Every structure is written in structure tokens, then in C-alpha cells.
Amino acid sequence: MAQQKEMTLLEHLVELRDRLVKAAIALGVTTLFSLIFARRVLQLLIAPMGENQPVALHPTESIIIYFKVALILGVVLAMPIIVYQFIRFAVPGLTPQEKRYLYVIIPGASVSFALGVAFAGLVMLPFSIKYLQGFMSDLIKPTYSIDRYISFVTAVLFWVGLSFETPLIIFFLAKMGVVNVQFLTRGRKYAIVIIAVLAAIITPTPDPFNMLIVMAPLLLLYELGVLLARLA
What we know:
By secondary structure, this protein is mostly helical. It folds into two domains: 158 residues, no CATH class; 67 residues. The chain is 76% helix and 0% strand. The protein contains nine helices and no strands. Helix 1 packs antiparallel against helix 3, helix 3 packs antiparallel against helix 4 and helix 8 packs across helix 9. The two termini are 23 Å apart.
């Protein structure tokens, strides 16, 4: 195979711009499409609050939240194109065999991110919000601004969704020769500590039960990554 011509810094910046433009166009299209479902998804996101309906503190807050929810959905739908553009920029000189792996990694990354968002929204948040609403509720009435609430929920959904990409990241690094099974096995105890720290950061509540809800799937995802690295 002919050796790839080394790109100049300017050519790298031009390619980065083109990749970002393509990703932004994809995100814009999927966000516009997601406007159709934004109201239904917003109902799901505020469902854990129960009877405590969130409030809007200024006239434009409701419409801003409507578009913010559509943007969240747009990111999930555009994830295949975003991941593809990132990989092609980060690793431009892929061989034909390595390019075939993209047909597995890109859909897998999209599904993994969507599963992480679904797990956070349907499993993790209901427990967390219920706990937060009940904490010192005899002294403090839990009334939330819809903007602050959705910003909080968005952060949780994003980071949990991103953490679900762990197995595919490990698989890709193993295919590139950066890590191997022996390295991952020896580093398992360090991985547990890192996962515990990440779970504590991601978890919005201080109690260990909610932390375990996040930590358990992350540990399983790491072990799945080790299995994929073995296959790689």
C-alpha cells in the first residue's frame, strides 16, 4: 500500500473544519426532526418529579427548554455521523480492513449512547429525584426551575450515555494496539477505583445506593470491554 502523504498543520485544520461542519449539519437536521417528539420526551423527563410540577421563572424559559430537549434528542440521533467524523479525523490513514470495523463501531457507539441515556432517564433519575425531593422535605419545599432541572438532567444523561461507550472504546484501542487483554486484566483494580470515582461524580445524590446503581453497569461495561479486547 502506498504510504500516506503527511498533511501540513493547515491541511489538518481545514479537515477539522470540514468534519465539524458535517457533524454540525447532521446535528441541526436531527434536532429539527426531534422537535416533533420534544414535548413527549419532556413529559418523560419531568415524570420523576411526580406531583411537583416545575416552574418557569421568565417568559422565554419554556420555549428554551423545548428546544434544549430537542437538542438532546438530536445528539442521540446524530451520534453515528458525529462518531464517524471524529474517527476519520483522529485516524485518517485507516486500512481497508480497519475501515470495515467502522461498520460495527459506529452503529454500536450510537446504540450504546442511546442505551446509556435510556438507563439514566428510566432507571437512575427516578430513584435520584425521589431521594432529592424527600431530603429535608419537612423543612424545604422542593420547587424546581424547569431550566435548572433540565440542565441537571441533561448533564446526567450525557455523562451516563458517554460512559456506556466504554466497551467500544476499549475494543477500538485494542484493535489499534494501544491496549491488550493482559494490560486490562492487570489494571482491573485501578479501573474499579476510577469507576467508583466516576460514579460518585455522575451520581447526583450522596447516598451509596444511587452510586451503586451507576457503578454496577460501569463495571459490567468494563468487563464487556475486556471481552471485546480479547476478540480483537
